[in-house]
Amino acid sequence: MTELYNEELFIDNFAKEIRRKRKEKSLSLNELEEITGISASLIARIENKQSKNLGITVSFKLSNILKINILQIIEASKQK
Fold this sequence. Notes:
- This protein is mainly α.
- It has five helices and no strands.
- The model has no long low-confidence stretch (mean pLDDT 92).
């Protein structure tokens, strides 16, 4: 049987990791916007789980800049 992934769990885990890594690196939303080209308001909406459609480009940019292992987050999103 193929394992399924839970989209809500992925969004929740990804949002928490973005905020954690951003704070760990002492970056403000505006500083992260300057680095990534992603608006501070979109980053805030992602961190607050208000943006459900992240898009692959946004997800990869944030993951690369913040050194987030997106594969670990995907694996952690498997449905039990």
